[in-house]
């Protein structure tokens, strides 16, 4: 497992008597586990267990010094002084990592869950690879990969993540983000609206002001492209790792992209600003017909799923399955951290607040075990969840609260249990579900103006192809992330 930075009584002494050891020394003792030296591979393995990669740009100085230092050793190991020399330039970041102060503290367990979800998705069949763009039709339907990166730079990949694929409509939110970054929100919305169109993503139609309805439909994405330089910014977003351009896909798109050319000429006729050659490319934050789905968990991580077979709505079959299961992780993580705001967003987006993980543990189990009284009260009083669900060991939230000595939580659970009515809970859930749609529509315009909200929603339960802009208080729920493809 990942070593955790800690002090023991015998380690409080440093070479200079009476002086506490430095952070570098503490880190050395943590990884060395009583040995005089640390093999280089043991250090890098421990580093990866925290979620950090040796190629992380923030660790460049540390990794370069490690390479230089290893050339001076015969056994490929570092004593305390050599180790300190290697890590001192990045000691703050490394200390945070090994003290488990990142947004996902136990990254190894988290990665194991991700791999389990991935394996379940791999078993799925069905769907069809998009064939109206000839280049996309060449991809194998068996390809399936998932990659994620947290806000602290913890990364994990599984599956076919080394196979390049075209992002397609996943580009639209990032185009909007780049445009706002370069020019500001007010300037961008001189040319693009910020309302749902209620029409197909590629409809040849503008709003009453002769502007594209929003950046998520093809017309809006074309205008966004005219305002920005994509590749330079994309390289920065990717940490200067590989971001390519598929000329073969471009040529294939050009041969089959009559509608997009028509949209471009229509925009020109209406004197909507266009300054670049019409070119449909792809960036993350929504789904695309190549099989990609980018998920954003605000203030936590971004996840990219890719598998070419699509369902009837144009979304990756495996990607949808992965994202649906991921909602359980988001729910339990919010309960674990005591994030009532996130839980409120989940509830308003009609998420099932009684979802269970592999051990049949609910958010109420987790909140009770962690002693988050406010979360427990919210789940019971606002969400009307069952106060006595049992996990696979037969434990209830009350058992968890008693075991960990959270007496205030025990009191809340005991008081609520006497009032609980399954019928009332079902009625409350139905009211929340109906009310969330109106709440959503009333707030989306305001929230859309935030840079990290450039997402759209495809209504999964409808046969219509509707586009909505999703406010940040809803889009933690991956069910709101299945965006219309183009």
Automatic annotation (TrEMBL):
Gene3D superfamilies for the chain: 1.10.238.210, Ankyrin repeat-containing domain (1.25.40.20), DD-peptidase/beta-lactamase superfamily (3.40.710.10)
EC number: 3.5.1.2
UniProt gene name: GLS
ANK repeat placement: 359-381
Pfam families reported for this sequence: Ank_2, EF-hand_14, Glutaminase
Reaction catalysed by this enzyme: L-glutamine + H2O = L-glutamate + NH4(+)
GO BP terms in the entry: glutamate biosynthetic process; L-glutamine catabolic process
GO molecular function, one term: glutaminase activity
Enzyme class, spelled out: hydrolase
Record-linked PANTHER family: GLUTAMINASE, GLUTAMINASE KIDNEY ISOFORM, MITOCHONDRIAL
Superkingdom assignment: Eukaryota
Keywords: ANK repeat, Hydrolase, Repeat
Gene source species: Xiphophorus couchianus
Protein name stated in the entry: glutaminase
């Amino acid at each position: 497992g990942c070593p955790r930075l800690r002090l023991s009584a015998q380690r409080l002494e440093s070479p200079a008597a009476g002086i506490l050891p430095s952070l570098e020394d503490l880190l050395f003792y943590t990884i060395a586990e009583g040995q005089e030296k640390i093999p280089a591979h043991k250090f890098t393995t421990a580093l990866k267990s925290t979620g950090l990669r040796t190629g992380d740009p923030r660790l460049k100085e540390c990794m370069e010094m490690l390479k230089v230092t290893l050339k001076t050793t015969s056994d490929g190991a570092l004593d305390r002084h050599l180790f300190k020399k290697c890590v001192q330039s990045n000691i703050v970041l490394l200390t945070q990592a090994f003290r488990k102060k990142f947004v996902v503290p136990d990254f190894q367990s988290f990665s194991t869950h991700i791999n389990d979800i991935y394996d379940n998705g791999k078993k799925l069949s069905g769907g069809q690879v998009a064939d109206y763009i000839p280049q996309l039709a060449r991809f194998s339907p068996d390809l399936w990969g998932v990659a994620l990166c947290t806000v602290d730079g913890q990364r994990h990949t599984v599956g076919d993540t080394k196979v390049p694929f075209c992002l397609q409509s996943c580009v639209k939110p990032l185009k909007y983000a780049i445009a706002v970054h370069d020019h500001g929100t007010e300037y961008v919305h001189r040319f693009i609206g910020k309302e749902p169109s209620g029409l197909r993503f590629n409809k040849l139609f503008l709003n009453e002001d002769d502007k594209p309805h929003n950046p998520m439909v093809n017309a809006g994405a074309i205008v966004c492209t005219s305002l920005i330089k994509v590749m330079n910014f994309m390289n920065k977003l990717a940490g200067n790792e590989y971001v390519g351009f598929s000329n073969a896909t471009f040529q294939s798109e050009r041969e089959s992209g009559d509608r997009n050319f028509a949209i471009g000429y229509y925009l020109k006729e209406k004197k909507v600003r266009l300054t670049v050659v019409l070119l449909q490319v792809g960036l993350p934050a929504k789904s695309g017909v190549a099989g990609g789905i980018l998920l954003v968990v605000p203030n936590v991580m971004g996840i990219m799923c890719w598998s070419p077979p699509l369902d009837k709505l144009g979304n990756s079959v495996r990607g949808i399955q992965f994202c649906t299961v991921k909602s359980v992780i988001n729910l339990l993580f919010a309960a674990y951290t005591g994030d009532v705001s996130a839980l409120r967003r989940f509830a308003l987006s009609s998420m099932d607040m009684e979802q269970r993980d592999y051990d049949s543990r609910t958010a109420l189990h987790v909140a009770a075990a962690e002693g988050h009284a406010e979360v427990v009260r919210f789940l019971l009083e606002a969400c009307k969840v069952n106060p006595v669900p049992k996990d696979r060991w037969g434990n209830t939230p009350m058992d968890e609260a008693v075991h960990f000595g959270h007496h205030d939580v025990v009191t809340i659970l005991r008081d609520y249990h006497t009032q609980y009515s399954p019928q009332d809970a079902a009625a409350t859930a139905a009211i929340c579900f109906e009310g969330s749609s109106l709440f959503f529509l009333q707030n989306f315009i305001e929230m859309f103006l935030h840079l990290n909200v450039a997402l759209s929603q495809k209504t999964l339960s409808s046969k219509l192809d509707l586009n909505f802009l999703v406010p940040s208080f809803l889009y933690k729920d991956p069910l709101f992330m299945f965006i219309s493809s183009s």
